[in-house]
Amino acid sequence: MTSMHDIEKVSIEQREFSGPSPVQLTTEQFDRLFLTPRTDMSDRSSAGVQLKFGNPTPLGLIAFLLVQAPTAFIQMGWGGSNAAANAVLIGPYYLLGGLGLILSGVMEWIIGNTFPSVVAITFGGNWLALATIADPVHGIASTFPNRTSSPEYNKALMFYFAFWTFLTSVYFVTSLRSNIALAGVFFNISFANGLNAAGYGELGSGNLVVADALCNAVKAGGAFEFVVVCVAGYLFVALMLDSVDMSFRLPVGNLSNARTNKTKLS
User: Fold this and answer.
1) Phi, psi (rounded to 5 degrees) for 50
2) Of 97, 176, 258, 261, which has the fewest beta carbons less than 10 angstroms from its beta carbon?
3) Which pLDDT belongs to residue 23?
4) Measured distance CA(39)–CA(114) in Å, rounded
5) pTM to 2 decimals?
């Protein structure tokens, strides 16, 4: 015969393992919080989404901001700074830009958000790559005859930033299904990458006259990065306000309903 003690034990175990009821999100709330349009696939086909995990998107944004902001300021030469000042940021590049964004991307992948996951992991890899290039422990620049002034060194960076221009342009197009703020981030960072690629390309060609002129273009790239910081910072604040359910919200320009998606067309 089942005792009262056994009944109480089963009741306690059910309470421990059942956990809290998941929060139901509307389509608009999902699009806003996770920066990705909700599709009609799998468990997202219902009117709401069962949110069982925390939102990793603000983590990715703030990790990006904490390294992109000082990098943009140095690139623009604020306070008399120059490229040598980037050496101070090697630690943040590794631990914030790299580790923070990759962790955010993995968490986005776990909850099924493909677009934010790919963006966060690739940007995290970018900061790790830049940290490795600049880290004197690896001595990458010292393998070239003229170190960072060597044409080969600068040509390699030109190709790197050129492909990043392509990648962020793709991100810009895909972000048009998300919101205006996120699209603004990728629009401006695409120009910044393009200007950086042009500057390193001229240095790699040994065209110092043009390269001197393009130093201003590199500073302009830093200005585009500053715009990116401002827009991404605004988006971060908007998501943080949403995360604590504040009584007011910052508009981000939702675009998820502006275009008909493939699922609806089919």
Assistant:
1) -85, 110
2) 258
3) 47
4) 11
5) 0.79
Phi, psi of 37 (to 5 degrees): -70, 135
Lowest mean pLDDT among 10-14, 172-176, 217-221: 10-14
CA distances to 1, 70, 83, 215, 218 from 212, in Å: 90, 23, 15, 5, 10
Q: 244-265 burial, b if ≥16 CB within 10 A, otherwise e? A: eeeeeeeebeebbeeeeeeeee
Q: Tens of pLDDT along 136-165?
A: 999 898 888 888 878 888 899 999 999 999
Any residues with CB less than 8 A from the CB of 21 and at least 6 apart, and which? none
**DSSP tag of 266:** -
Region of 124 on the Ramachandran plot (φ > 0 left; ψ -120 to 50 alpha; else beta): alpha
Angle at 68 between CA 218 and CA 184, to 5 degrees: 80
Q: How far is CA 195 from CA 8, 217, 262, in A?
A: 68, 6, 34
Q: Give the type of residue at 221.
A: G
Spatial contact of 199 and 218, defined as CB atoms under 8 Å apart: yes
CA distances from 58 to 13, 25, 35, 131 (A): 34, 17, 10, 23
Instruction: Count CA within 13 A, CB hemisphere, residue 163.
Output: 8
pLDDT of residue 13: 46
> CA 158 to CA 214: how far, in whole Å?
13
pLDDT value at 261 more than 80: no
Which residue in the block uniquely carries the two structure tokens 């700074």? 81
